[in-house]
Amino acid sequence: MRDAKEGNRIRRLRMNCERALAISGALFLFPVGLLAAQPSFDSYQTHSHFVIPVDPNVSYSVTPIEDGKKTIGLRLVLSGLKTEIASLGGKRDLRTRSITAKRLTENSEPKVIYEFLFSAQATKLGVEHFDYRNKVPSEIALDYWLKSQKIDPKPTPTKA
Predict the structure, then answer these.
(1) Cis-peptide, bond into residue 31, ω within 30° of zero
(2) Helix, strand or coil for residue 46?
(3) 3-state DSSP assignment of residue 139
(4) CB neighbour list of residue 104: distance below 8 Å, 6 or more residues apart
């Protein structure tokens, strides 16, 4: 009886391994662009975090979007991105009013432009940002947060 149970367990294990190998082998038949993860936008108490997986050959730049003297958003331009872009239109948080994405071709080079427009509070207080590129996995990340409130270095004297 024990040998039959053990034999059944080994057969099930072997079938599961064969299925897993068949599925993983089939994934290699798809073009890499179709399997690329979509961009993500996460909101934390301290900052907003955007990350997009990209091909290592993609270049990028981050510039402020200004209205007069106020910075009202950030523009992320990805050059050479060939995969489809995803909309993050419904995403927003304390710092973000809206996110738009558009694709265009300039001098026969595909570009994708993400614009992060700040909320009224973020525009009023100001926003600082930091962008970076990870090599493994190849992705570009953009973090931004509200500027710290200035603290008066001289405490006001109190009467005793």
Answers:
(1) no
(2) coil
(3) strand
(4) 110, 111, 113
